[in-house]
Specification:
Layout: H1 5-11, E1 20-23, E2 26-29, E3 49-61, E4 71-75, E5 84-88, E6 92-100, E7 110-113, E8 137-142, E9 148-154, H2 158-163, E10 167-173, E11 182-188, H3 205-208, E12 227-231, E13 235-242, E14 249-253, E15 258-263, E16 266-272, E17 276-278, E18 283-289, E19 296-301, E20 308-316, E21 344-352, H4 354-361, E22 381-383, E23 401-403, E24 408-415, E25 421-425, E26 430-435, E27 443-445, E28 447-450, E29 455-461, E30 466-472, H5 475-479, E31 483-488
Parallel strand pairs: 3-6, 5-10, 11-13, 12-20, 21-24, 23-31
Antiparallel strand pairs: 1-2, 3-4, 6-8, 7-9, 9-10, 13-18, 14-17, 14-19, 15-16, 15-18, 19-20, 21-22, 24-29, 25-28, 25-30, 26-27, 26-29, 30-31
This protein binds copper (II) ion.
């Protein structure tokens, strides 16, 4: 034998489909796709209609992580804090929505994060639809073209909406070649709660002008360090979501073997997991080989100075699998191939505004004035020197770029700030091509974490015509200027 596969991959300078990489100090190995497991494209597995009725309202809720307090959450339905909506590839999603939020002027619209759906269903107030006012109803109808772990949220006053829990998973099934032994959906979200059990302000100038205003209580599925029972010696699929508006995490298991099988819903040649960074809105699907019965595995967040336990998994029952862990890849979605040779290059600079710089200089920042009308009065951030919204809803300003549907583009995302920014594009998936700071595997994503001072190139083939938002998903950054739109004609 001599050389193990892992050593071979790690030692190869360039290896088709995979690279040995260092992820900002944390080594991981990206495996090349096994020649025996070619990519299989996911095809529709069902037809018909999936109905979803959303009733956005304030619902006093005592989550386990609230330590006995009951907080006025805003949720999509009675009885469930984070709905997990499942549908099958090929089904049409028909959503009805009623806005019963308790505040006058609290407009809503639903954005279906990561889904390549027609622009008029994308759920951006004023840009793709009129917002739905309190007491009013709305509807959405589309057939998701891709399988994967997606989610939905509102797109106006989002820092407060995320802060009050208004977020839900949308899972499009049909990507499994063979089913795992079990599946878990984990939604990581912090809460901003005072010691006496009240919500703290969801936005602060001080936070918005820096890395964001952090939560005070951590949770996964509303529980601090939840413990999950899993089958022993089994392959368990974990759909991990970072739905916090602020937190950047770097997840990994302390002991067990696991592989990344999808990023932002996109099936990937499995990458053995050492750790993986997720900014707000980013998702990763993992396949975990659980230990023998009676043993526990801990999912950690290594990003914080002191690694934090996110969740524990306790194995039980008869072993499901023997032999070494060979992660089964997922089926993949169809994408028009990126033509890098002909691609037009477009620069996107992410920077602070003069106001943002000034706030950072202030030591005693006061409360803020982010309105619920989807406009902010403070602009701390800009893309290509334009802060959103520059004027008002009737005058959106120029698009950041005008693309032609079907043509290939390479964006150079340049972070001129000392903070990380998870950059999200609506209605498309980027192909991450490279970074000036680190070696990355090539993968598809709808949200790319741009580290301080980093330059990342991403490719995309322009999709459906329309106005597509392009913004940082640290919600306070988005709401204080780091947002714009791209026109596809
Ligand atoms: Cu940002």
């Amino acid at each position: 034998m001599g050389t193990t596969r892992r050593q071979f991959v790690a030692g190869a300078a360039a290896f088709s489909g995979g690279v040995a990489a260092s992820f900002a100090g944390t080594a991981y190995v990206a495996r090349a796709r096994d020649a025996l497991t070619p990519e299989i494209v996911a095809e529709p597995i069902a037809s018909g209609v999936k109905h979803l009725a959303l009733d956005l309202a304030e619902r006093p809720t005592a989550l386990p992580c609230f330590n006995g307090a009951t907080l006025p959450l805003w949720t999509f339905e009675e009885g469930t804090t984070f709905p997990i909506v499942r549908m099958k590839l090929g089904e049409r999603l028909e959503t009805t929505l009623v806005n019963n939020l308790p505040r006058q002027g609290e407009y809503v619209s639903i954005h279906w994060h990561g889904l390549r759906i027609p622009n008029d269903q994308d759920g951006v107030p004023f840009l793709t639809q009129q917002p739905i006012e309190p007491g009013a109803k709305g509807s959405y109808s589309f057939t998701p073209p891709d399988t994967g772990s997606f989610f939905f949220h509102t797109h106006c006053n989002s820092a407060e909406h995320f802060g009050r829990g208004l977020v839900a998973a949308l899972i499009v099934e049909g990507d499994e070649i063979s089913p795992p032994d079990a599946e878990l959906v984990l939604l990581m979200k912090d809460w901003r709660i005072s010691p006496d059990g009240k919500f703290l302000p969801f936005i602060t100038d001080d936070g918005a002008a820096r890395a964001g205003t952090s939560g005070t209580v951590r949770s996964v599925n509303g529980v601090t360090k939840p413990v999950f029972k899993v089958p022993a010696s089994a392959d368990v699929r974990i759909r991990f979501y970072n739905v916090d508006p602020v937190r950047i995490s770097e997840i990994g298991f302390e002991t067990a073997e696991a592989a990344i099988i999808a990023v932002d819903g996109n099936g990937q040649p499995p990458i053995m997991l050492e750790s993986w960074r997720l900014g707000p809105a980013m998702r990763v699907d993992l396949l975990l080989r659980t230990p023998p019965a009676g043993e526990t595995v801990r999912l950690m967040d290594y990003f914080s100075k002191v690694p934090a336990v996110l969740a524990e998994f306790v194995s039980e029952g008869a072993p499901r699998r023997t032999g070494k862990f060979v992660p089964q890849p997922l089926k993949v979605s169809k994408f028009a191939p990126l033509d890098e040779a002909s691609a037009e290059h477009i620069q996107m600079d992410f920077s602070a505004t003069a106001t943002g710089e000034a706030v950072v200089q202030m030591s005693d920042a006061t409360g803020t004035t982010i309105g619920s009308l989807c406009l902010s009065t403070n602009t701390f951030w800009a893309i290509n020197k334009e802060a959103w919204p520059s004027k008002d809803h009737q005058n959106l300003g120029a698009p950041l770029a005008v693309l032609k549907s079907g043509n290939s583009y390479v964006f150079e995302l340049k972070n001129l700030t000392p903070h990380a920014h998870p950059i999200h594009i609506h209605g498309h998936m980027f192909e991450v091509l490279g970074s000036n700071l680190r070696r990355l595997p090539r993968f598809r994503a709808d949200t790319v974490l741009l580290l301080p001072k980093e330059r990342i190139t991403v490719g995309l083939v322009a999709g459906d015509p329309g106005k597509w938002m392009f913004h940082c998903h640290i919600i306070e950054h988005q709401e204080t200027g780091m947002m714009g739109y791209i026109v596809v004609t």
